[in-house]
């Protein structure tokens, strides 16, 4: 007993010390749950309300979920795949795939033709033009194309047209919306003939009816080859816009992302300028107009993020998103408000910007006026040419 008692006391003191040590240690942080492609799942939260927002607008915004991102980081034109119900927060939200800008000087010519369209080119214009200027710029063009065919020959003059389209879109984003073009964007483009192969290459069998896809995972644009050559380039412009937005801006809210892609999809490039005639795309679309309060309809459009945007009724949402961008791009006030959204998104690229609060603050008259102007534009699209 004399030997056992000290042993028992020692064991008891040791156990007491172990318990105290466990209680004093800081609680270990749980490891994030890794989703597909190494994405970190986060819970869905309602956005905060902006001060001074009308009560009807605030009530809707309060129940609007934060945008949901596709698990594989892809954006697909056409039929969209099902995605995870959790928000995928990317550690690398901007593409960051651009090499440093090459050194050297480049001469760019700017002029206006007889139709009033502004042109930019690295060669001097031929014939009679107006307001011709020669601009010395530093570095290489901000976009480079690397194209390949998976199971089909590439469209004729693909590289030249893709570069011209990408440069024109990038220049408009920079000059009209203050989107920086730091570095050289390398666009990986793959044309595919078979719908089955397209579904396999995009990593989603549910996308077999889609026409084009841009994957944030491997920074690659994929186009399902169409019989109409011009349709191929229209699809390509749509996906180039998604790629440049990812490269330069970040995870833009779905309605604005698709609206911008739809707008530039209709860009008719001439030289290094171009034009969009938005009214042509809205013919016969009056049945797709939203109903009810215009501001509430706008918030509802923004609230339909990814899976909800691409679900039933997506045709109407695509048309409404296109009309919103066209209406904003058609006025100086609209471009300034849209530029403010893109600037805020660039500053925090991983989280979709609070577009409702920004437009409420930046658009003259706030979201109520913007909603009214947007609805009026859709009811009677102005037959004007937006030239660049």
Summed up, what is this model?
The chain is of the alpha+beta class and 388 residues long.
CATH top level label of the largest domain: Mainly Alpha
Distance between the termini: 98 Å
Which strand order do you get reading across the main beta sheet? 2-9-10-8-7
Mean pLDDT: 74
Instruction: State the total count of DSSP E strands.
Output: 13
In CATH, the topology of the largest domain is named Neutral Protease, domain 2
Low-confidence stretches: 1-13, 15-73, 76-91, 96-105
Number of distinct helices:
11
What is the global morphology? globular
How many whole angstroms does the radius of gyration measure?
Answer: 26 Å
List the helices and strands in order. Answer: HEHEEEEEEHEHEEHHEEHHHHHE
User: How many independent structural domains?
Assistant: 2
> Structural class, judged by helices and strands?
alpha+beta
User: How helix-rich are the residues, as a percent range?
Assistant: 25-40%
Strand content: 15-25%
CATH architecture of the largest domain: Orthogonal Bundle
Oligomer: single chain
Describe the largest sheet: 5 strands, mixed
Give your account of this protein's structure.
This protein is of the alpha+beta class. The protein folds into two domains: 54-102 and 140-387, Neutral Protease, domain 2, CATH 1.10.390; 103-139, no CATH class. Helices cover 39% and strands 16% of the residues. It is built from eleven helices and 13 strands. A five-stranded mixed β-sheet has the order 2-9-10-8-7. Strand 4 (105-112) and strand 5 form a beta hairpin. Helix 2 (55-62) runs parallel beside helix 7, helix 8 packs across helix 9 and helix 10 (355-362) packs across helix 11. The longest helix has 21 residues, at 4-24. The model is unreliable at 1-13, 15-73, 76-91 and 96-105 (pLDDT under 50).
